[in-house]
Amino acid sequence: MANSADCTSSHCSQVFLTYGPSLAGGAIFLSLFAVLIPVTLALGIRYKSSIFATTIATGLALEVVGYIGRVLLHNSPTDRTSFILFLLGTVMGPTLISGAMFLVMPRIVAIYGEEYRSWRPVWYLFLFYAFTVVSLVLELAGGIVSTIQDDPKQIDTGIRVLAVGLAIQLVSLVLFIGHAMLFAIAVRTRRHRLDTKFASIYNSMSFKTFLSAFSFATLLLVVRTAFRVVVISEGYGSSIAQSEILLLVFDGLMVLLTTLILLAFFPGRILGASWSETSARRLSKTQLQPIRATHYELPSTQNSPTYNHMGIKSPMAHRSYYSAPPPRNELVNSDALW
């Protein structure tokens, strides 16, 4: 938390940074995040996933605002307004990006089959979106209180609130990973038939690569969020908060790589038309029903060329064999898993 013992005047809280941030580092991240915004929106329009793309674009816009503030801090490290822009932009931007990622999981479950979902998609989205909204509110409130106040006690209170908001985001990401792991275990262990409706998707190499990339992007956000929790908890004047290299690597770079992965393996492109078919609104209207085996009837032998109407044995009759149709995937294809 903020070290009130170092405060010798009412204006000590204005010194947020003890160094001038690198102009080149801030400008590079600012430019990259700005360029990705129209790319994200274009992909959302192209693949009819506007909500997902808009949420990510909003997160990128906040990152742009954050690095505008950091560029301004290059010439005036003690400027309060610039630090507020930097803090709120870089803290809240990744929260929205993670919120966009929460949209994808129900669709992945639906691709494999409705019997693998643990609860209705609308409940799933309500839970994780509640985490996201609460996190954003606490981050905004804590960031403002900890930067506009000069009283050390109020600064510490704001930092605690901000740290709680980041911790809630971290918890939501951990729960998201836990839900994904339970889903993967369920697909591996249950001897249910996969839904053949989307077999062409979950058997494709692009979908398997997408799952690996999406998992890696989620882990990057976990690392970034855990780092910011530590930084904020230690206070703005701590050594880790004053390390520019750590900030650019474990915050800026992690968020940038996450966004690049999401755009390179854009879910709307990978899932194609199934993106709209597996939306939470449509899935919530369906009831969970086990997949039943299809009744198979033996073909009539009267139409067979080897059938002898006169009761005389056909020379080919003894060579006629019936083989049951091969069963449809009784076991789960482990290559198509999360």
Q: What descriptors fit this protein?
A:
62% helix; disordered C terminus; 338 residues
Walk me through this protein's architecture.
The chain is mostly helical and 338 residues long. It has helices at residues 23-46, 50-72, 80-101, 105-112, 121-148, 152-189, 199-202, 205-234, 244-264, 267-271, 274-277, 280-283. The model is unreliable at 1-13, 287-298, 310-322 and 334-338 (pLDDT under 50).
Unreliable stretches = 1-13, 287-298, 310-322, 334-338
Number of E-state strands: 0
Helix tally equals 12
Largest sheet, strands/sense/barrel: none
Distance from N terminus to C terminus (CA atoms, Å) equals 40 Å
Shape: elongated
Structural class: mainly alpha
Helix content: 55-70%
What's the mean pLDDT score?
A: 83
Topology:
Blueprint: H1 23-46, H2 50-72, H3 80-101, H4 105-112, H5 121-148, H6 152-189, H7 199-202, H8 205-234, H9 244-264, H10 267-271, H11 274-277, H12 280-283
Helix pairs in contact: 1-2, 1-9, 2-3, 3-5, 3-8, 5-6, 6-8, 8-9
The gist of it:
This protein has about 350 residues and is mostly helical.
